[in-house]
Design brief:
The chain is of the alpha+beta class. It is built from nine helices and nine strands.
């Protein structure tokens, strides 16, 4: 059973909200079972992490252990002078899925919304790299995107895993009209404090609460500064469009709307056109 390296600083180290470390981070952790990656169709957590049921001091949690982040694609997406405007430290702090979740939950904690509009978070922890082999042996998990150069080092000298502790939601609820209306109300409260989840899909809800912020854009965010206003508006409305798509896909009969019908239908036509084009 591992003990964690001690990290005492709120993360990430940039302007804006931060997440504090878990208060009992020196306690022993017991990995009980893998609760993500249950099959080839399981894409929960967006491929950014593996989630385990763990026990700490006789209490059960969900431990979301993040894969290692490679900033190559995000750096390549910066165009022209954007590369000069955005330091690599800010890029990583605003695009790394682990930091995305830290910033989103940091804001929810600031605004006293933690556990009210999303699954409760208890802070971040680190797990020693020595446990990579044990997790592979016990749960057949080995795709962590760890830089290949690190495997030339002794496990004790490799980067530790970064993880976030949350409530383990064992009881799910069906998507009824009452549930999806509450989901929309919660989503609007989340957006109202400057957090845009950017991945509103059925698999990211448990018990009617959002559980994934690994793709979230949280203000202040560099994309909201360097991109044209129309593009920022698109970013910020994506969640509302996605909520309506979720309701439609789940077959929920409700008059509740996140965006006007005209705008929603226009977005759907755009998505359908792209999907047809991709199939040719």
């Amino acid at each position: 059973m591992p003990r964690w390296p001690l990290y005492d600083e709120p993360l990430p180290k940039c302007k804006g909200p931060k997440l504090h470390p878990f208060q009992d981070r020196t306690a022993v952790i017991d990995f009980v079972r893998l609760i993500s990656d249950q099959g080839p169709s399981d894409t929960s957590e967006g491929g950014h992490a593996h989630v385990f049921e763990v026990s700490i001091l006789s209490k059960t949690y969900a431990l979301k252990m993040f894969k290692f982040y490679d900033d190559e694609d995000d750096r390549a997406a910066l165009i022209g002078e954007e590369r000069d405007l955005i330091p690599v430290e800010i890029l990583r702090a605003h695009r790394d899925p682990f930091f995305n979740e830290c910033r989103a939950y940091g804001r929810l904690v600031e605004k006293n919304l933690n556990g009210k509009v999303a699954v409760r978070c208890y802070g971040y922890v680190t797990v020693p790299a020595e446990w990579e082999e044990e997790l592979r042996r016990k749960f057949e998990v080995d795709n962590w995107n760890r830089p290949h150069s690190e495997y030339a080092k002794a496990p004790t000298r490799r980067q530790p895993f970064r993880a976030i502790l949350k409530d383990l939601v064992t009881k799910d609820v069906p998507f009824t009209e009452k549930v999806v209306r509450k989901m929309l109300k919660d989503l609007k409260r989340i957006r109202g404090v400057g957090v845009y989840p950017m991945d509103i899909v059925a698999r990211n809800y448990r018990g009617g609460l959002l559980l994934d912020f690994s793709a979230a854009l949280t203000e202040p965010h560099y994309l909201f500064v360097i991109k044209p206003r129309w593009r920022v508006r698109v970013y910020k409305r994506d969640d509302l469009i996605s909520w309506q798509s979720l309701v439609k896909d789940e077959g929920v009969d409700t008059w509740e709307r996140a965006v006007p019908n005209v705008e929603y239908c226009k977005k759907l036509r755009s998505r359908n056109s792209k999907n047809k084009g991709a199939g040719k």
